[in-house]
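Quick one, probably user error.
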């Protein structure tokens, strides 16, 4: 796992634009190297803003949308099309506007699937496993970029402080019950799955995130501070706006756009 680098942008709007531009470059490079790319989306305010900016980016079609696999880091266990589902937001913001192969969009199951949350988690794990190649050496494909929002309580994906999902050491996907942020029932990638990603990008904007950002960059344990467990295999980036970076020790963040 890699130590985090921190980049600070002026405000949420510039942060979202800069992350969208970074995604274009990273995904184009990954596709040039291997022919395809795997991207993991996050829900939440800034995560969705990034997707809107990507849809609007002049260079967006430099990405070979036909060879991009899109996954989710977590999902709120609600019916298909529910406006609080992370999938619904991502489709509206980006996926409905680009020439992506529908078979390569991999939403987590919905509550109207008839599956229990546990079976839904297992089904998603099976879908991930089916997408692996021998060179992935694991049960999930090598994610090129895995984006995560950060809650004010430092949750990432649907991994909330102190909850059992944070103790998972083997399964890549679990059901979450009793989440403190509604809805209480969710599906989430686990820390072991997150750690397989080549690059993990934690994206946070707003003053309410400043304490969580500070803790996520400290030596705190991931059970108490899930954001402190958000680390990638080759690179970990904390992409922040100035207010979310407000409690960083001086000198830790590099100002990317003052
Ligand atoms: O519930 C969730 O919250 C987090 C953070 O959302 P934000 O609006 O505070 O940025 C998000 O990363 C996660 O995917 C989502 O399910």
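Nope, works fine. Designed sequence:
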């Amino acid at each position: 796992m890699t130590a985090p680098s921190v980049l600070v942008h002026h405000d949420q709007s510039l942060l979202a634009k800069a992350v969208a531009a970074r995604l274009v470059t990273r995904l184009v490079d990954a596709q040039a190297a291997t022919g395809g790319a795997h991207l993991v989306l996050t829900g939440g305010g800034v995560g969705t803003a990034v997707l809107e900016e990507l849809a609007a980016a002049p260079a967006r079609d430099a990405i070979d949308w036909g060879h991009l696999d899109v996954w989710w880091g977590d999902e709120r266990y609600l019916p298909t099309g529910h406006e609080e589902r992370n999938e619904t937001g991502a489709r509206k913001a980006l996926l409905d506007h680009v020439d992506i192969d529908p078979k390569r969009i991999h939403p987590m199951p919905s509550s109207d699937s008839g599956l229990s949350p546990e079976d839904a988690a297992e089904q998603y794990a099976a879908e991930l496993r089916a997408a692996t190649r021998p060179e992935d050496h694991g049960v999930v494909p090598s994610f090129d970029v895995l984006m995560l929002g950060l809650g004010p309580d430092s949750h990432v994906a649907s991994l909330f402080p102190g909850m059992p999902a944070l103790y998972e050491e083997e399964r890549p996907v679990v059901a979450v019950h009793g989440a403190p942020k509604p809805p209480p029932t969710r599906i989430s990638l686990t820390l072991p799955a997150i750690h397989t990603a080549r690059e993990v990008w934690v994206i946070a904007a707003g003053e309410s995130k400043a304490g969580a950002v500070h803790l996520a960059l400290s030596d705190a344990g991931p059970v108490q501070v899930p954001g402190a467990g958000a680390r990638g295999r080759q690179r970990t980036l904390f992409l922040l706006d100035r207010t979310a970076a407000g409690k960083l020790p001086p000198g830790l963040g590099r100002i990317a756009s003052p």
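The longest helix spans residues 12-34.
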